Amino acid sequence: MRPSPLLLALPALSTAQQQFPFLDQVKGWFAQASNSISSAIPSAPSPPSVPNPVASGAKVIADAKVQPLTKDNYQDVLKPGAATASPGIEEWMIFVTGGNKTCFGRCERAETAWNESTALLSASRSPPNLGLLDCEAEPVLCNAWAVGPPTIFHFLIPQPLADQSTPATTVRSFGLNRTTVTAPEIASIHLEEKYTQKEPYEGIFHPFDGPLAKAGLAIPVGYAIWGFSLIPSWAFMIGVSFISRSMMSRRMQGGAPAGGAQPAAAPAAGS
Ligand SMILES: *[C@@H]1O[C@H](CO)[C@@H](O)[C@H](O)[C@H]1NC(C)=O
Ligand SMILES: *[C@@H]1O[C@H](CO)[C@@H](O)[C@H](O)[C@H]1NC(C)=O
Ligand SMILES: *[C@@H]1O[C@H](CO)[C@@H](O)[C@H](O)[C@H]1NC(C)=O
């Protein structure tokens, strides 16, 4: 006898709950892997090549163009050749921030540091493109990328090849320490090429080349994870037990007619 597909689905349903900590681990990995950055910059001295933000700051800040990202525009904005006409690899730095719900209202220091760092970054000889992702306004995109604020995403987006195929995009993420992050620390990711010291991210939430993105599922999965996160866990448990119970009883009812079919059919034939 082969087990019914419904019964096989049951354990998968009940382990769905256990997969959410996995998501936290992914997010935790993002945050942890970047701790080396803060320790690599003991008291955050500006290297001589970095212009003083106080001196050149205000005007350059006004000039720095930071593109807001949404689930609807990110594919157009983060396209090679979209922001600059120059050939070669396009570098992007994207600040992921949040508000009361997504950052416990504690992203302000990181936001200030980012705002100041945009002056440093745009003063560099080859300024990266700058983007902003607000998880409070864009929870779906943040979940699709499995990213929590405050974080810097660093993308290297290559131009399409002559045959129009797209080479892989390099993605690195740097979790920022909410209480200690500084502008030079953020700027050093580009200015001192700190990003080269970090392994690129290759996991399933890779925004361009991950299996979800390739299958066009990143945004639907973002919706799903976000939707689940809105359900309290007790409601989820009740839902799972309700579904498994109704599956059990349907299976029992489904089994009964096999034995009970003849007695039930007999009176009908006799009448
Ligand atoms: C965030 O929370 C603080 C303190 O609870 C409150 O003063 C502030 O208005 C909230 N901000 C938003 C955008 O809801
Ligand atoms: C950072 O800059 C943005 C855009 O100029 C501004 O809306 C925001 O209030 C600034 N945040 C902080 C903490 O200075
Ligand atoms: C941020 O830095 C402070 C001071 O160095 C440290 O105590 C804290 O654990 C750090 N937080 C995270 C999330 O790494």
Tell me about this structure.
It contains 10 helices and 5 strands, in the order H-H-H-E-H-E-H-E-H-E-E-H-H-H-H. The protein has helices spanning 5-32, 35-40, 53-63, 74-77, 108-122, 139-144, 183-191, 211-214, 218-230, 233-270, and strands at 66-68, 90-97, 129-134, 151-157, 170-175. Helix 3 (53-63) packs across helix 5 and helix 5 packs across helix 7. The chain has a domain at 53-229: Glutaredoxin (3-Layer(aba) Sandwich), CATH 3.40.30.10. With 271 residues, it is an alpha/beta fold. Residues 1-60 and 257-271 have low confidence and may be disordered. The protein has a 5-stranded mixed beta sheet with strand order 1-3-2-4-5. The structure holds 2-acetamido-2-deoxy-beta-D-glucopyranose (3 copies). One 2-acetamido-2-deoxy-beta-D-glucopyranose binds at residues 35, 177, 179-180. This is Peptidyl-tRNA hydrolase.
